[in-house]
Amino acid sequence: MEYDISVTGIIKKDNKFLIVKRSINSKHFPNKWTVPGGKIEVLDYINKKSDNEGQWYEILEKALRREILEETNIEIFNIKYLTNIVFIKSENKHSLVISFHCECDNLDNIKLSNELSDYKLVTLKEAKKYDLIEGIYNELKMVNKNG
Questions:
Q1: Contact status, residue 145 vs residue 83, Cβ threshold 8 Å
Q2: Rounded to an integer, what distance in angstroms lies between the CA atom of residue 56 and that of residue 44?
Q3: What is the pLDDT of residues 59-102, one digit of tens each?
Q4: pLDDT digits (tens, 9 = 90+) for 24-62
Q5: CA–CA separation, 137 and 11 (whole Å)
Q6: 2-146 has which fold?
Q7: Which of 27, 113, 26, 25 is CA-nearest to residue 68?
Q8: Virtual CA dihedral for 101, 104, 107, 108, nearest 10 degrees?
Q9: What is the rounded CA–CA span in Å between residue 121 and residue 50?
Q10: What is the largest CA-CA distance in the chain?
C-alpha cells in the first residue's frame, strides 16, 4: 500500500475564506474549488539541517508554507492543526490529507500558479455556492466555529 501525504491550509481573514479553483488539467478534482495546499516532498527536509540525527521537526508546517507560497504568493503564519482525512485514489494508493487553519497578513497580492485557475474570498454562506471538493465545506465550518 502506498500513501501520498498532503497538507492544506484554510485561510480566513476578515470573515472571508480563501478558496482556489484547480486547473482543468489537474489529475485529481479538475475544475473543483478547494483550499491551497499540496503534497509533502522529500525536498521539504532531506537537504536541510536535521533537528536530531536524521530527524526533522515541523515538516508539515514547512511544507504547507512552501505550497501556499508556490500556489498563491501568500506567506502564512500561526499554523494550527484542524483535522485529517484519508481517501482512496486507487486499489494500491491512498491519500492522507492533513488540514490546518492559518493566518496571513493580507490577501492583496495573490498570484496563482499554473495549477490553479481562479480564486475567491468568500463567506461561509457564499462558499456553499461553489463546486467544492467534498469535505472542504465541513472544514470551513470547523474554522468558522472555532473563530
A1: no
A2: 10
A3: 999 999 999 999 999 999 999 999 999 988 888 889 999 999 99
A4: 998 888 999 999 999 998 877 888 888 888 898 999 999
A5: 13
A6: Nucleoside Triphosphate Pyrophosphohydrolase (3.90.79)
A7: 113
A8: -170
A9: 37
A10: 49
